[in-house]
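Lab notebook, bench 4. The sequencing result for the construct came back, and we need a structural model before the next group meeting so we can plan mutations. Quick request posted to the team channel:

Model the 3D structure of this chain.
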Amino acid sequence: MSFFGLFSPHRPPLIQQALDDLRLMLETAHEMLAAASAALLDGAPLTLDLKAKDEIVNVKERDVRRAVLTHLAIAPEHDLTFGLTLFSVVQEAERLGDLAKNLEKIATLAKAPPNNVRLAPLRELRDLVLSMAEDTVEAFVESDAERARSVMERNTEAKERTAAILTALAEDDTLGGNEAVVLTLAARVIGRSAAHLANVASAVALPLDQLRQSL
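Done. Here's the predicted structure in token form:
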């Protein structure tokens, strides 16, 4: 049985609170990834306070854990598997905020704007990952297993794109050291974001005993 099939439409209040908090975490992380990647790859001004947004993500992670533990304390014979699964999913969501902050730090390493030709594949990867982030939120909110499976499938494409970018960078003899570091780190962080999104989506799409096996 999948993550959302464990409850009737009338979910216990603490569980509904936890799910609402997890939704906010995902929405906030999506916003952070979009802003940080635009600053790094597009030269856009970073007007979003990533530290404040990440604090929201971190607070909500603790709220989710507290709500689940309280629910299980009230009815320990019920929903243990669900609670453990939610603990795993919320950790994935929290990592997305950290990765967005990593993109901001990577941007500060650049001594000059990276070459536009080299940025193009990274922008395509970023756009793919942002589409995954948007669909992960929607799949989660709507309990849409088909959309969640689409996110997981796109993670395979994201991994392939990331590997191709890293190979191209490694084989580029004209690439300077600073630009190589910036672009390589950016590719790795954006690719890792895709993996964490797929992990979250797997909770909607897969039986509980198969979560994360697609990665």
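The two ends are 20 Å apart (CA to CA).
Will bring this to the meeting.
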